[in-house]
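Q: I have 196 residues here and want to know how they pack in 3D. Can you give me a structure?
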Amino acid sequence: MNTNYSAQNFITVFENVLSAELCQNLIEKFEANPQCHKPERKTSKEDHWQMQFTQVNFVENETFKQEEKQLQPLFLQAINAYKKEHDIQPHQWPEQFKLEPIRMKRYLPNTEDGFGEHVDVSDYASARRFLVFFIYLNDDFDGGETSFKQFNIKVKPKQGSLILFPPMWNWLHQAHAVTGNNPKYIVGSYMHYVQK
């Protein structure tokens, strides 16, 4: 089942992309390997947004190489479904593209963890990105929605569901803070343009 919020905004959620078992395995492996964790914290110069979470970069950690190989084809399948969903024609899509390194993120509840309103292309280096996608690995928490204010959309996390949307300036979005007893976990990447 998928939820296409609008053919105009290109925000789509596909449900049941990842099994509950695989989601739980990823969470357990994340927690079992704190040596791979990298805390991230950044505030914009204008203080319009703040990001804070802990992540694991699968490419940088040999421990997660198997998970990277397992998720890559799944993400590519989702991209093909996304193109079909939005009737994207071959001349609209780059002939060559690649995945940015897959990352898994944890947002702790009842803390400053979250990601304020932002876009995922903000400079020359990130301008290679043309599609965002990530999977919600759990939903046993309160809050933690992904919202798009200009489209009046707030996506409630659901375990195993994958969200895709463009990363550019007009897709301002926010990862809301988590409350309750459990952290929020996601795993995702971006599609990149490549040089021919």
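Q: Anything worth noting?
A: The domain at 2-193 is CATH 2.60.120.620 (Jelly Rolls). The chain has one domain: 2-193.
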